[in-house]
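Record Histidinol-phosphatase, 262 aa.
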Amino acid sequence: MIPDLSADGHVHTYLCGHATGAMEDYVRAAIDRGLRRITFLEHLEAGIEYAPKTWLTDQDFTFYFAEGERLRSVYGERLHIGLGVEVGYNPEQVEVILQRLSRFRWDRIGLSYHFHRLPGAPYHLNLLSNKKKNLEIMEHQGSDLLLGHYFDALLDAVERIPAHVLCHLDAGLRHLPGRRFTAAHREQIERLLQAVKRHSMALEINTSGYEITGQPFPPAEIIARARQLGIPVLPGSDAHRPADVGRFFDRLGDVFSAAPAP
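=>
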């Protein structure tokens, strides 16, 4: 079954600090593209030492929900507007994360892992960054080791944080040249998919990958395995500007044709 390509389930705004455009700009863009549903998935992090800040505070989320309700009153007959969160996993802050999640009523909770604390380092490393400094650290540490940490952290997150969808399954170190998945990584991915299935979660198909690797995150073979396991798949553009809403959704039909569920 092909997912609903009229619904973009992963959209950010200027509120996260590294995107442009107000919430209303994204709503209008979605309507212009003929979408029927959009879900904002703004960043929540806890205990992360990194600059600049790329996530929302609770005060930001209070505004986010108020503005979301206003937009629903204006555009609700033309577009279903979901108010969700992309929560970044931090194994040292699980209780804080759970407390913060409980303060709001989310339409969707997406789960990801961006920031990794290296032993003895005062700051976290952004594993999804394309900044030169971060890439140099990744290369020095070694992609095989860091990717192993990435998949282990996602597996731990799925077990400990109640969420609706797993985001960025294979996007760790996505900007590092020469990144590869070893046999050990593929075993970790299989365990991760099994955990997603066990916790009745969905898997995100993130179309931002087309701009980086020429294919979505995750690629067709992982999508096929998820479908084989009966895991729902949800498309998301990971939009960081209004023009990104629904980007590359027209290519997803080919992904499902090339990798049908066994």
